[in-house]
């Protein structure tokens, strides 16, 4: 999976030195990089990545919808790949570089997908939106890397055409109860065709 070289490099350099997991009694000390900054948490080893982000680091942008891997509201990027944070334990991500919606852009300088969701009205209540945007970032990287989907006609093609069918299939893990799907697709398309990240 290709990653935006410089930002990933910076995140790697920010990784804490030494072991990423220390076991003490019934807890584990886990170190990772969250939004380009080193973080260290002492956790019950059963803590999910989602609860570590929301309850321990107070990064409430990542949403808890189903807590069962069914809705995509909890999608974050782990080393550039999209992951359902409710389905993995925080300790599994020791040493990883994790990006949440808070790390994608700033209020002054939105990530292009954040700006596109605003421009195209890609949300109503907004609950699914952080997961949709993180998922779209990962999805566009997958397409650029030539990874086929279930609906890709030519899996050997050098260039995968990002048709609406491709986008819907690739974003099918992210549900929107407000059914903002047409505008979500329009927002993602505008970024894909604009050649931005
Ligand atoms: Fe993780 Fe629904 S909260 S997939
Ligand atoms: Fe409400 Fe998607 S905008 S769930």
Give me the secondary-structure topology.
Layout: H1 5-14, E1 21-24, E2 27-34, E3 37-43, H2 49-56, E4 75-78, E5 81-84, E6 97-99, H3 101-104, H4 112-119, H5 129-144, H6 164-170, H7 181-194
Parallel strand pairs: 2-6
Antiparallel strand pairs: 1-2, 2-3, 4-5, 4-6
The chain binds FE2/S2 (inorganic) cluster (2 copies).
Query: Helix-strand pattern, N to C?
Result: HEEEHEEEHHHHH
Q: Helical element count?
A: 7
Instruction: Name the average pLDDT.
Output: 91
Name of the CATH class of the largest domain: Alpha Beta
Q: What would the principal axes of the Cα set say about the shape? A: globular
Spans of at least 5 consecutive residues whose pLDDT stays below 50 are: 1-5
> Rg, please?
17 Å
Report the β-strand fraction as a percent range: 15-25%
Question: How would a textbook summarize the main sheet?
Answer: 6 strands, mixed
Number of distinct beta strands: 6
Superfamily (CATH H level) name of the largest domain? Beta-grasp domain
Number of domain units: 2
* Bound compounds: FE2/S2 (inorganic) cluster
Output the CATH topology of the largest domain.
Answer: Ubiquitin-like (UB roll)
């Amino acid at each position: 999976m290709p990653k935006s070289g410089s930002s990933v490099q910076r995140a790697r350099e920010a990784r804490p030195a030494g072991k990423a997991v220390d076991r003490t009694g019934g807890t584990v000390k886990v170190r990772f990089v969250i939004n380009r900054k080193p973080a260290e948490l002492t956790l019950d080893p059963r803590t999910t990545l989602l609860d570590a982000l929301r309850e321990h680091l107070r990064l409430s942008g990542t949403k808890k919808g189903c807590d069962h891997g069914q809705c995509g509201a909890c999608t974050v990027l782990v080393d550039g790949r999209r992951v359902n944070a409710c389905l993995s334990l925080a300790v599994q991500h020791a040493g990883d570089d994790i990006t949440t919606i808070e790390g994608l852009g700033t209020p002054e300088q939105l990530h292009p997908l954040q700006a596109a969701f605003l421009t195209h009205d890609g949300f109503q209540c907004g609950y699914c939106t952080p997961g949709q945007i993180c998922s779209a970032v990962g999805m566009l990287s997958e397409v650029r890397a030539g990874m086929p989907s279930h609906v890709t006609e030519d899996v050997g093609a050098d260039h995968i055409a990002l048709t609406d069918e491709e986008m819907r299939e690739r974003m099918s893990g992210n549900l929107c109860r407000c059914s903002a799907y047409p505008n979500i697709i329009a927002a993602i398309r505008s970024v894909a065709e604009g050649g931005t990240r």
